[in-house]
Structures are given as structure tokens and as C-alpha cells.
Design a protein that fits this description.
By secondary structure, this protein is of the alpha+beta class. The chain has a single domain, classed as Immunoglobulin-like. The protein has helices at residues 2-26, 89-98, and strands at residues 30-34, 63-64, 68-73, 76-87, 109-122, 127-129, 134-138, 141-143, 160-162, 167-177, 183-188, 191-197. A hairpin with a 2-residue loop joins strand 7 and strand 8.
């Protein structure tokens, strides 16, 4: 009888393991890009592009500034676009002028301002989007948005609940290593869903 119960337990464990592995493969985000309506100027790549089979907007093949990335995840579809980018000493001067209590970036780092748009194009539920939905990646390290007061002419990306058909846009500030290539990632369910190259 004990042997029989042991065999049943092993079979149940194997069935559950297969289901978990199968389900985890189903929640990978699908990433594509939307053709640009007009040509855009993008940063010059620091390395020679190589042929890749990775989808546009992935970590291995990030999209460019002004290029819209379409992300489909658990039945919800989003369009993510980085509209504008500024970084360096000029950004620090703007931040200091906006609020004298903004802290100077630490040694070897600089501030990067990026304007993003997030649109929830289809699905069945609301999704919360804020500056914390985005991270900056430099040298394979992720950086959260910085706690700074933004200039009045650069309104921040406020936290909102987006129903299908809704969109929001605004500026986010990151503190990143100086002169290093940076990828901006939109994150869904605490995992990066797409990447956009904003140069160095």
C-alpha cells in the first residue's frame, strides 16, 4: 500500500512539473515593432551591427528612439515609444535650476532624461503604468528612475491605470554611468518586456 501511494505521489509530481513548465513558456511577452511613419534620426551605433534572429525590441536587438515597440503579454497589448532623450551636464544644470535640493549625480554617473509614451491598445483589464514601469540598463545593470524634481517644462510620467484604448506620456529621469550605451526597458509584471536603445 505504501509503495502504491509513493508511485501516485511521483506521478502527480511529474504531471504538475510538466504543467508548470508548459505554463511558464506561455507567458513570454511577444515583441514586435511598428513601422515609423517618417524617417527618424537615431544615435550612431558604437559597434557594427550583426545579423540576428532576435525580434526587434528584444534585449539582443533593441528598437531605436521614435520606434514603437508592440508588446503582447497575457492577452494585453501595449505600444511603447521613447520620444526624446537628453543626458549629461546640461541635464544636471536643468535639474539644479528646477530644484536646488536635487542631488548632483555620483562620481562617474550622469543624469539621463527620457520622454516615453505607453499606450494600452487592446486587452480586457486595466494596467498600472508609471515611471517605475521603466528601467535604464547600462553595462547589463538595471537602474530605477531617480528621485528628482523635474523642470516644469518636462512633466513627469504620472502613475495611471490604463484601460484598453488609453495612453500616457511623460519624462523620466535616470542616473546612469557616464558615456555608456543605455537601453530603456518597459517592464510588465516586474520583468523587462522590451528594450529601446537610447545611445551613449
Amino acid at each position: 500500500m505504501k509503495v502504491m501511494k509513493g508511485k501516485i505521489a511521483v506521478v502527480l509530481f511529474l504531471v504538475l512539473s510538466i504543467l508548470v513548465v508548459s505554463f511558464s513558456g506561455c507567458v513570454e511577452p511577444e515583441v514586435t515593432t511598428k513601422p515609423n511613419a517618417t524617417p527618424t534620426i537615431t544615435p550612431t551605433p558604437t559597434t557594427t551591427p550583426t545579423a540576428t534572429s532576435s525580434p526587434r525590441g528584444s534585449y539582443q536587438n533593441p528598437a531605436d528612439v521614435s520606434e514603437t515597440v508592440i508588446v503582447t503579454y497575457l492577452g494585453e497589448t501595449f505600444e511603447i515609444t521613447v520620444l526624446d532623450v537628453e543626458r549629461g551636464e546640461t541635464v544636471w544644470q536643468e535639474l539644479y535650476a528646477a530644484n536646488m535640493f536635487n542631488e548632483e549625480p555620483k562620481q562617474g554617473f550622469e543624469y539621463l532624461l527620457t520622454k516615453v509614451r505607453a499606450a494600452h491598445t487592446s486587452g480586457e483589464s486595466s494596467t498600472y503604468v508609471s515611471s517605475f514601469s521603466f528601467n535604464a540598463y547600462a553595462e547589463s545593470v538595471g537602474y530605477d528612475s531617480a528621485f528628482v524634481v523635474l523642470p516644469k517644462d518636462r512633466p513627469g510620467l504620472d502613475g495611471v491605470d490604463l484601460m484598453p484604448g488609453g495612453q500616457t506620456e511623460g519624462w523620466i529621469c535616470f542616473e546612469v554611468p557616464k558615456n555608456k550605451p543605455v537601453l530603456i526597458a518597459y517592464e510588465y509584471l516586474f520583468e523587462p518586456a522590451c528594450f529601446i536603445n537610447v545611445g551613449s
